[in-house]
Amino acid sequence: MGASQAAFFRGTAELMAYDLQQGEKSGINLLIDGDAHLQNFGFYASPERNLLFDLNDFDEAQINSFEFDIKRLLTSVYLLGDQQGFDANKLDELVQTDASIYRKTLRDLFKVGALDRFYQSTEVNHLVQAIPGAEDSALLSKFVKKATKRNNDSVIKKYTTTIDGNMRFKDDPPSSVRLDKTTYQAIFDGFTQYRKSTRPDILVLLSEYRITDIIHHSVGIGSFGTNCYLVLLSGLGGSHLVLQVKEALPPRPELIPNTERITLQQEVSQGQRIIASQ
Asked: Which InterPro entries match (predicted)?
């Protein structure tokens, strides 16, 4: 985190959370991401395999003042721009423009019905159509092309190898390390229970696969030190799938208003909170 101001900012959400709690608050509480810095936005595929651009980290999701997400996002825009050597006046203008677009988007959303707001799309194709000149942007085309290559096949290629004709995860300590038998069995049994809790269509898909390897894999900046595992699933016809099993921690206490603590204590699990917030 000492590499730059932006890196420090990214890894210390609790410090900004503390500052925000001490300052003026709108009192308008709703579901927020809790860590909506710019690097927590990105490209990923929807269940229908459409390319989206949206928030992709919900570990800190919770009920809190709506403006906390906006302040963290705009601060990250400035810090990342400064890290890239952008002019300070231009960065001030960019932050002001971003805030203006946010306000305009809110006004526009409340000009349509609740159903249209609910189905507001973050598909890249729709976003490109809404941004003047975006269709002709070489830089955006480059990002989209790169994003489409970051799929299950690329994960398989990056993290696995073939040993005696069987696909296995690569040993890459300290990032990727083997499990003891007890932990391996616990993850194996947990996956079996997980399958029973999924939707029927997902259960049908997962029934086509069997677990062939599990490894402990360290990820992220804010999540470093938490338990995270990669599960390799293999199916007929040489089909493989990698799933991530990640420990879900409670939101940082500084981000949680006292009035919401009872609600959080009643949650079935932190994992359910994170999934439901997506």
From this structure: DUF2252
